[in-house]
Amino acid sequence: MPQNEHIELHRKRHGRRFDHYEKQKKKEGRLPHILSKKAQTLRGIKAKLYNKRRQNEKIQMKKTIKSHEEKETKQRQEVPEGALPAYLLDREKQSRAKILSNTIKQKRKEKAGKWDVPIPKVKAVSEAEVFRVVQSGKRRKKAWKRLVTKPCFVGEGFTRKPPKYERFIRPMALRFTKAHVTHPELKATFQLPIIGVKKNPSSPLYTSLGVITKGTVLEVNVSELGMVTQGGKVVWGKYAQVTNHPENDGCINAVLLV
Amino acid sequence: MTMRSHPPPIINEHQPKVVHPDRPTQTAWLSLFKRIVKNANTRYGLLWLTGGLLFCLFASDKAVLSQFQLENGTLLGGPVEIPLTVNLRQLNSITNGLAQVQEGAAAADTNEPVPYSFYIDEIEIKESLEKYFEEQANKQIFEKTLNIVCVPKARFQVIPVERCTATIEGHLEAITVLQFSPNGKLLASGSGDTTVRFWDLNTQTPFDEYGRAHRHWILCLSWAPNGKMVASSCKQGLIGLWIGATGKQHGTKLLSGHRQWINSLSWQPLHLNGSCRLLASGSKDTTIKIWDTHLFKTVFTLSGHTASVTCVKWGGQNLLYSASQDRTIKVWRTTDGVLCRTLEGHAHWVNTLALSTDYVIRTGAYEPSKERASDEYDHLDESTLQTLASERYEKVYKLFDTNGGERLVSGSDDFTLYLWKPETDKKPLARMTGHQQLINDVKFSPDTRLLASASFDKSIKLWSSRTGAFLSTLRGHVQAVYQIAWSADSRLLVSGSADSTLKVWNIEKRCLLFDLPGHADEIYAVDYSPDGQKVASGGKDKVLKLWRR
């Protein structure tokens, strides 16, 4: 083992022998013969150790060769199982076991009275958020009027009560008539007129006022979509649940409850 | 022998045989009427008519003045006075006589009488006029002329299939599509193991050579109307062409161009082009491509749909109808690929389309009612085949309307069907509701008078194709009905369903005829051979079953 770099220095300064690379290649070519001779002539414990080491090397070599071969050959892609005809491709087929359990679950739900809604739990909106106190009276001391600060829906034939007796003021700027309703299966959104507010989950007071917040169930006019019942009658009203915060966005986005 | 050349027995076998000693026999009636009608146009025509009328009046107690007419409104002769007790057999002879007299020398090949069924105000006359008036209590009209509509039935009768004659294995995965060739001699099937196989129907074994060029499930199969080539499409969006008689591939490469799987294939009808060159394909990538199969190139790419195209049909007037999951049906002109019309109305995906001229376009020049030598069509050249096909097409095209009109029916996921006249109107003719689940398959009967729709609600509904009126429901399956097929004489319907049974229905009586169990798993594809002899079915259990009588 050289103590200093004088060999490397010499190589850098003077280069190598002219036939160096040729000799190196030939030496490498002789290597298998030498190794096999060694393997054949070794005896005893040395032989055992050597054979074990050699076997591991050979296994590694075979693996790399195989992986190279695989990369070169064009692989035929595996065809998945469960072939379906064209008309069943876009449909999710329920397995038969699931159908049974689904019917049992449906029966249980009907008994309990719980219904499936896309947004089941909504944070309740407090009265302080929805209403703002409007002071009235000659000395601005009376505080029985409230101004609604969230979007709401009033019917078509709505006329205000006489302003002196109005307790809840619903400003015109916050009255909405249309909602952007998404059909969950078709993944298409339509702008449909609202027929009414069915239920506001925070409070029945909001339902009667027509206040629309996230999670409110609305009734929308779906005659545009052209749906028909089993009896052949045209469906023109369906429920939809609001999915955004309309007071922040300025529009009502809802998902249709099919 | 499934086809008889004499008229089939009329349905109600137990007719009362009224033999009146004074009344002239049936043939005498026929000749009498013939003479009356023939001489109606001569100088003494009126005399003949009145004489005939008087004779009728004296010969029977009650008589009605009636006018026979065809479905498209053409009248068969003038008003005729017929007694009330006339039964179906006699009505048939009268109509045949009138039709012959009207057509005269032109109807040289109609030596065999055509069986007719008779309708007054859309209600069928079952046994005799008397019975009809008994049932329709408030319709006794003796002063006005009665309009009797004569509907010709198929001259041959198909014997229903009863038993499975062969269960042939061969495919390694579920069979997804099946189709008989237009002359009913060859059968091609595609499956999930990426192969297209051809089956020899005489020995009921598969051919040696079979189509291995595809790399994914075969989704769609279509025979060219000249019966020589088959086009198949796979889930990777490639189309392969095969030669039907041998099973070898036509050309070396597959037609590629679509980016997602192809849902439907449709050839150009034979009467438009005798060489069967153009093929239309609708794919999930929302485009429709028209291919030239001789040059292996795309001719047109029709884009316009915004969701997957589920069905394409090449109509007989060079219009292409395409149904899509974006709830619309678009009508395109195939000569230059321009969109003509968009038919809107459905509320959910449109799954299937059916054209009234489907059967005629499918069979092309081959006429199943005439027994011809098996290779007679091979000797005919393209232009003769084209003229034969267009003759057959014109007859069906002008059936309900002398100006002609193709009808289109679309079945959708919104549980309804719409009847359209797509060449003229953007608005539907009728909306057919009643199903409780999505509709998977709709088919017109070969004589285009009836419509059958199969739905996932386990029932099949029959509708009148002229008005869209509901006729009846066929119940019997216990799971979703996937595919239906009509027999060539429009009297039988076979349906395959997810409950692994096939059912054969008698359409005249609107009831179940035979139940054909035997498959081990769901049946995905059913086809009735165009000559009415065999039914083939295949499904998830990987075997192909052939059924005969």
From TrEMBL, chain A:
> Record keywords: Glycoprotein included?
no
Name the UniProt key words of this record, in alphabetical order: Nucleus, Ribonucleoprotein, Ribosome biogenesis, rRNA processing
Mainly localized where?
Answer: nucleus
Q: Name one GO biological process term.
A: rRNA processing
* Compartment(s) where it occurs, according to its Swiss-Prot or TrEMBL record: Nucleus, Nucleolus
**TM ranges:** none
GO cellular component terms? nucleolus; preribosome
Which CDD domains does the entry mention? NSA2
* PANTHER family (UniProt xref): RIBOSOME BIOGENESIS PROTEIN NSA2 HOMOLOG
Record's family?
Belongs to the eukaryotic ribosomal protein eS8 family. Ribosome biogenesis protein NSA2 subfamily.
Role according to the record: Involved in the biogenesis of the 60S ribosomal subunit. May play a part in the quality control of pre-60S particles.
- Subunit structure, interactors included: Component of the pre-66S ribosomal particle.
Q: What is this protein called?
A: Ribosome biogenesis protein NSA2 homolog
Upper classification of the source organism reads:
Eukaryota, Metazoa, Spiralia, Gnathifera, Rotifera
From TrEMBL, chain B:
Q: Where in the cell is it found?
A: Nucleus, Nucleolus
The answer to whether UniProt assigns keyword Nucleus to this entry is: yes
- Keywords in alphabetical order, please: Nucleus, Repeat, WD repeat
- Give the Pfam families listed for this entry: NLE (PF08154), WD40 (PF00400)
Zinc as a keyword of this entry, yes or no, is: no
Q: Where are the WD repeats?
A: 168-209, 211-242, 255-292, 302-342, 432-473, 474-508, 516-549
Q: Where is the NLE domain?
A: 74-132
Q: Which GO terms describe its cellular component?
A: nucleolus
The family database entries (CDD domains) matched by this protein are listed as: WD40 (cd00200)
Q: Which GO terms describe its biological process?
A: Notch signaling pathway; ribosomal large subunit assembly
InterPro entries to which the protein is assigned, alphabetical: NLE, Quinoprotein_ADH-like_sf, WD40/YVTN_repeat-like_dom_sf, WD40_G-protein_beta-like, WD40_PAC1, WD40_repeat_CS, WD40_rpt
Report the PANTHER family cross-referenced here. NOTCHLESS PROTEIN HOMOLOG 1, WD40 REPEAT PROTEIN
Protein name (database record): NLE domain-containing protein
Q: Which organism is it from?
A: Adineta ricciae
Q: What is the lineage of its organism?
A: Eukaryota, Metazoa, Spiralia, Gnathifera, Rotifera
